[in-house]
Amino acid sequence: MRPHGTAAELEARRMKALDLVRQGWRVKDVAEALGVSATTVSTWKNTPGGKRAIKSKPQHVPQCRLSASQKRQLRSLLMKGAAAAGFPTDLWTTKRVAEVVRREFDINYNADHLGRILHDLGFSCQKPTKQAREQDPQAIVEWRRSNWPRIKKGPTQRS
Fold first, then answer.
1. Pairwise CA distance, residues 118 & 66, whole Å
2. What digits encode the pLDDT tens for the residues 6-36?
3. What whole-number distance in Å separates Cα of residue 111 and Cα of residue 102?
4. Phi then psi for 58, rounded to 5 degrees?
5. Model-level pTM?
């Protein structure tokens, strides 16, 4: 489980632990003072390289290949609908969005990775409810009113 706090806060805690150990505190006391386990403090203490080795390392987050203006342009294209983009239906899929990004901006994205960009643009994953085209809502209401009570199981009678 990842500890709570920013990278800077977590690094400060590790540095404080090493400072306290170097001042002569026992590992157990340092752990109790900082709210971590003694094993964790021992690990920090015994890490080769000292303070340099327990410094925070920045996460590698790849930069989005679409610029801010391209994202705005993509949003307007998506708002026009998939049919306006040349697809047979008006349903957007990530594969279709990837195709539009490739066509319009000459940038290749895996369809599975476009969800994050779409979410940043304010879109969410939605699936249309499956419903038969031939469905008659009035017939359903009538069936529920007349047939369903007749065939529905009631409570069993004990003798």
1. 12
2. 888 999 999 999 999 999 999 999 999 999 9
3. 11
4. -65, 140
5. 0.50
